[in-house]
Structure formats: C-alpha cells, structure tokens
Request: fold
Amino acid sequence: MNAVYGATGMTKQNFHQRLDRYLIRQDEQAQMVKVMHQVRQDHPAMGAESMYRLLSPQTMGRDRFEAVYQSHGFVLEQKRNYRRTTDSQGVLRFKNLLADIELTGVNQAFGSDITYYQIGERFYYLTFILDLYSRYLRGFSVSKTLATHETTLPALQMALKGLNRAQTQDLIIHSDGGGQYYAKAFTALTRKAGMRNSMCTSVYENAHAERINGTIKNSYLKHFDPQDFKSLQIQTKRAVNLYNNERPHKALGGLSPKAFEQTLLSYPQSFEFLTKKKEAKKKGDDKSNLILKSTSKTVNSI
Reply:
C-alpha cells in the first residue's frame, strides 16, 4: 500500500479519507436508484428536476443525479423496468441464501428494506428489519438521509438488541442489492454477530420486507398523518408497536407477531400448527381451523 500512497501523492490518512467518502457516495447512489423506482411508481410523470428536489441526495449534485436518472431509464420517453430494484453492477453482492431454505423458527432469517415517506415537499426514509418466520419487526430507523449510519446500521443494532452470539450465529440477513447492505460499517456489524449476508436479484425475492413497507405506510402512517420529522419518528414507533402487538396476521393463524412468538416460547411444540394447517388445507380438511382456534385460546390465556 505504501507504493499506492506514493503513486497518488497522498498520505495514508488522506487516501483512506477519500476512499471512505467515495464508498459513502457509492452506497447512497446504489440505494437512491431503488428509491427513484418507488417514486416513479407513485409519481409516473415526475421528471428529474422535481425528483432531485424531493429526494435531496446528500452526495450527488444535480448533474450527477440527472446522469444516474438517465442511465437507469427514468427518462419519461423510455420504457422502465420496475423489477430492477437497484444497480449492483461493479459492487459487492451476496448470494441469495433463502432460495432453498425452509424456516422452522425465529432468529433464523431477517428481511430488510428501505423505503421513503413524503411529508410536504420533503422525503424521509424508513428502514425495517423483520423476522421472516414470525413477521415480528425487530428493528427500524427513521432518517433524513440514506446514509448507512442513519438507515440500516441503527435498524440492525436495534434488531440485535437482547440477542446473544449463540442466537445470531449463522442468522441470515436478507435484503435487496442496496448499498447500505454491503457498506463497510453494516457488514462489520453482521460479521461481528456471526450473521450471514444474503441478497435477492429481484423484488420478488424480498417480498415480505417489501410488503411491510406498504403495511406501515398505508395502514398506519397515512392515517396518523405526521407533519414533520419528529412526529414521523414518533408515529413510526407507534405503528411498529401496533403491528407487532395487536395486528392479526393471516400467515400466523390470525395471531399478532408477538402472540405468535409467545406461543412458540411457552409451547415450542405449537409451531407445528402452521405445518398441519398447510397439510390440512391441501387435503381439504376443516380440522386446520380447530388447530388455529386451539392455539389462539392458548395464547390468550398466557
């Protein structure tokens, strides 16, 4: 590396400072493309200038933003491919570890995604991490920028709170190809926890995380109507608590994520009711409903 420092005419410290700034720019750009797709779906006729003003990227000037806008097919006259969530060419990617795995319990795999929330003329960002088995929202963050230290990093730190190394060893963290999920600070945390990073190649391989965005935004925040960043933080926390503790989930037999996890904790054998339900449904057996009712009574009595 000394040869590199000498060739560039920079000190070691200055070289790494510039490298860190470059990586931060790359992280934001990779995730910004995903958010641009979301904005275009919600605002089909929005042009580059308006989109730039609303997104207010921290590391991209207007010219750079418009170049990215054009290179990814956002020019209105061109056809757009909404299945592409991020631009990951030339950047680190992880294999999709969920492709052939059947989850059997909590703390086996987390799913995560970042979305935007608009208040007036300003966009803010929501990051969620949920347990893919219980659908429990483990961590979240509300931020003004797409910087890793404001989005995925605090969300994952929250998700890992209360878990020991034995519980996080080999735990999969699954996401899209956004820059915040392969950023140095984020991968350092997953490595320290013994987690395995996983990435999808299309939105359909991260469906649960994508779906939670719509649930929190449309079923809660839209009705809570936060008017500024502070109230968005407060109302997002409120929405997460309501979702985790009270919202019934069809995939969990009508239980809330918290009630479902309490059932697993108190009666480990009860997780079999989901498998039995699926098998009974295939056979057209109405007994599956009895299993769910029995489980629900058990939860209510805890």
Summary: Residues 78-91, 286-302 have pLDDT under 50 and may be disordered. The two ends are 61 Å apart (CA to CA). Residues 251-300 form one domain. The chain is about 50% helix and 10% strand.
